[in-house]
Amino acid sequence: MTLSPETVPQPVTEARFRNFRGKTFVARGEHALELSETAALILKGVDGQRSVADLGQLVATEYDIDIAEAISDTSELLQHLVVAGVVVVNEV
């Protein structure tokens, strides 16, 4: 699965977020994932309205990196989160 820049991810209501000892985790059911700082930034921005490109712009601004690279990295991360069942996607 490849997510286009126009793809709009939505959070899964069953997913739970927790900060523990300076680390961010997301869990759905019995499975939990530890998120990097960048992954946590992206996932916090997932609201069902922002597109992959919008979220990539957040990353580019936060880390002062190239926008195209940020969108590509954001798309790749979101693909993993879709597979993990933490977000779902709708095409615009």
Question: Short description, anyone?
Answer:
This protein is about 40% helix and about 25% strand. It is built from three helices and five strands, in the order ββββαααβ. With about 90 residues, it is an alpha+beta fold.
Written account of the structure:
With 92 residues, this protein is α+β, with helices and mostly antiparallel strands. The chain has one domain (8-90): Coenzyme PQQ synthesis protein D (PqqD) (Arc Repressor Mutant, subunit A, Orthogonal Bundle), CATH 1.10.10.1150. Helices cover 41% and strands 26% of the residues. It has 3 helices and 5 strands; from the N terminus they run ββββαααβ. The strands form 2 sheets. The chain has a 3-stranded antiparallel sheet. β2 and β3 (23-28) form a beta hairpin. The two termini are 16 Å apart. The mean pLDDT is 92.
Protein topology:
Elements: E1 8-11, E2 16-20, E3 23-28, E4 31-35, H1 37-45, H2 52-63, H3 67-83, E5 87-90
Antiparallel strand pairs: 1-5, 2-3, 3-4
Main structural class: alpha+beta
Kindly report the name of the CATH homologous superfamily: Coenzyme PQQ synthesis protein D (PqqD)
Work out the count of structural domains.
Answer: 1
Annotated CATH architecture = Orthogonal Bundle
Low-confidence stretches: none
CATH fold node name? Arc Repressor Mutant, subunit A
Neighbour order of strands in the largest sheet = 2-3-4
Task: Report the mean per-residue pLDDT as an integer.
Answer: 92
The biggest sheet, with number of strands, parallel, antiparallel or mixed sense and barrel status, is:
3 strands, antiparallel
- The 3D shape can be described as globular
Level-1 CATH class name: Mainly Alpha
Q: Helix fraction?
A: 40-55%
User: Span between N and C termini?
Assistant: 16 Å
Query: Into which percentage range does the β-strand content fall?
Result: 25-35%
Overall strand count: 5
Element order: H for helix, E for strand: EEEEHHHE
Rg from C-alpha positions? 12 Å
Please work out how many helical segments DSSP would assign.
Answer: 3
